[in-house]
């Protein structure tokens, strides 16, 4: 874990942003390729992780391992649930996440 509060970290140009401390996903600020190490910018700290697959700009990257049906948190709110289990660093999008809003 990185303990740097600076928004730039020498040697890293791959970054993702956590919008709320309750979030368990980050938003990719650049396209990520499988194996890219990127800095995760939290509101109060920096951390890092490795992308487990390609993730497009603006898409979500898992900050933890998820089980099927586990809530996905973004903006401090539940935005959906996982269809399947995935690992930290994986891409989260509508191919592996569902939302019950509007279905009830």
UniProtKB/TrEMBL annotation:
Domain SAF: 23-96
Keyword presence, Lyase: yes
Keywords carried by this UniProt record: Hydrolase, Lyase
Pfam family, one: SAF
GO molecular function: hydrolase activity
Superkingdom: Bacteria
Name of the molecule in the record: UxaA family hydrolase
């Amino acid at each position: 874990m990185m303990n740097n509060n600076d928004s730039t970290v020498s040697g890293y140009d791959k970054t993702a942003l956590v919008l709320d401390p309750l979030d368990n996903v980050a938003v990719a600020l650049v396209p990520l390729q499988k194996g890219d190490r990127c800095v995760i910018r939290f509101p109060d700290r920096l951390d890092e992780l490795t992308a487990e697959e390609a993730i497009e700009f603006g898409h979500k990257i898992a900050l933890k391992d998820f089980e099927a049906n586990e809530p996905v948190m973004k903006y401090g709110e539940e935005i959906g649930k996982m269809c399947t289990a995935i690992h930290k660093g994986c891409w989260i999008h509508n191919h592996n996440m569902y939302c019950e809003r509007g279905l009830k």
